[in-house]
Fold:
Amino acid sequence: MDLHLILVIVVVSALAFDFTNGFHDTANVVATSISTGAASPKAAIAFAAILNFIGAFISIEVAATIASDVVDQSAIQGAGSLNVVFAGLVGAIAWNLITWYFGLPSSSSHALIGGIVGAALADSGSQAIETAGLVGKVLVPAIVAPILAFVVAALAIGLIYRITARLRPGPVTRGYRLGQIASGGLLALAHGTNDAQKTMGVITLALIADGALPEGASPPTWVIVASATAIALGTYSGGWRIIKTTGMRIIKMDAAQGFSAQGAGAAVIMASSHFGFPLSTTHVINGGVMGSGVAKRVSAVRWGVAGNIVTAWILTLPAAAAIGALCFGITEIFGDGAAGPVIISAIAVVLIVIAFVRRSRQTEVVDVQTEVA
Amino acid sequence: MDLFASVVAWKELGDTVLYAFVGAMAVSLAASLGIWGATKYVDFNQDGRGVVAGMALAVGAFGLVATIGIIALGIYLMVSK
Structure:
């Protein structure tokens, strides 16, 4: 009974993480379109939410590797394994909400990996960590992603300005705004495909650990539908504070820059997905935005804002790991049963409600709409 | 250094860099040609230069078709992953 209750809590936590993932990463997909006026904020977000939902069904090549590449599964098996997954999810959700609160675009994937690594470390020590996987699949891509997107977007905007320099600005702006709708759509599709699978993977792992599914099973249909729905609802809710940072605070963007940032971002994400080299959507898009700004002139980028974003990226893994480890430690006080997760969930819900009340969404929508106008 | 050499998938990384660069430049070039062609078509037409306007329209149409083709290829790569 206790194990089933923990399973239910883990599934709900995974869907909550999926919601924050969509909510947090809306900016990656829509920020540049909104800031250049290519689409109205509400239309852009509704479009992104629908494509995120569809994207989740495109491929069900289970992304369970999110955990298995960085954590030794055999080291965390046993009665407490669901508590490790739960604590890792809480670490990821907490970091997503903290960075949202401060309007900082950080990687949800890294938050999830950090949370699970921290909880696994607290449970089994360093032998639970796959160092090679952590370096090769997380740390190196984290460095490569923004630099690659930065360079590619800078070169792309250079080419665009060269071709369109002597044209009338009106049709050029309208043309690139149209292009942004297409490139934004591709990004939303790619985001749904990549990110919803993380949740499907985590829930599937939990079901396997519980014995509800045999080892090596694919995610059941309800898991796919629930994950797709959670990420789409999160996207539709819109992380307005982060949209403002990515779309308006890093650079003052024109339509061509928005198109180059999104086009370069889509090219980088699709190439990386195709060759199995995982990159963070957040790092790619924000690197692209900075690159498209710096190609115009170096001072076009607000380096203070860029510095804050990079600091958040550096802190994501250790901070989510620390919260994950702390949560696991608290659950352990109550043993392997459901008491720990129940208490932490209750505290988390209260803290989330407080955070949301303090950062009223309605004010932020109006805020973004005012700035765009 | 040995750790990086053994755990980083250098080939995949190299391919990602190359194809991301080619993809981004291709879509930027195609879309820009589309916009250039459409804008110039209107301008040349207004100046009464019908033949040159037709050529600009052809460039614009090529750019538009190429942009749609690149986007379709992107979706295909995603679906067939």
